[in-house]
Q: What sequence folds into this?
């Protein structure tokens, strides 16, 4: 080997490159902060002196029950006012009950057949309402079952669902 036996230190970057790298990092952090601030949900402005109270889970579930009991009552009222046929009223009651179960517990009841619901071991009130009122009225030939009984079965599901 020819050459000197002296060791040379590694080449160092100049200060200009380090400052450029720090500037780019600061710019990226600032851009990320701006994106986060612009995409956050806005807080509603409360009246002065009011402090927002957190919603309790039971309040939300109680409100959900009230909302679906009102829907059931509207369907029954529409049937009594002859705006819905018995078959359509039972179909709407079935949809409302299944949607309630889905919103309350996350069970995909609107897309499950009665056999699937039985296999999953859901609350007996839902199985009873589906098997005795809604399925026979929707799928059976001949006259539909009285929707007033189906509405009461729907109320039972909404009140007793856990």
A:
């Amino acid at each position: 080997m020819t050459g000197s036996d002296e060791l040379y230190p590694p080449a160092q970057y100049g200060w200009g490159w380090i400052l450029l790298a720090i500037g780019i990092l600061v710019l990226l952090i600032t851009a990320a902060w701006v994106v986060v601030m612009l995409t956050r949900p806005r807080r509603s402005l409360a009246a002065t002196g009011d402090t927002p109270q957190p919603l309790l889970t039971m309040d939300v579930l109680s409100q959900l029950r009230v909302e679906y009991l009102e829907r059931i009552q509207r369907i029954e009222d529409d049937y009594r006012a002859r705006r819905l046929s018995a078959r359509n009223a039972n179909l709407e009651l079935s949809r409302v009950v299944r949607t309630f179960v889905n919103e309350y517990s996350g069970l995909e009841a609107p897309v499950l057949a009665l056999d699937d619901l039985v296999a999953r071991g859901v609350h007996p009130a839902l199985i009873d309402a589906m098997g005795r009122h809604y399925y026979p009225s929707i799928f059976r030939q001949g006259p539909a079952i009285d929707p007033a009984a189906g509405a009461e079965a729907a109320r039972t599901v909404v009140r007793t669902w856990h």
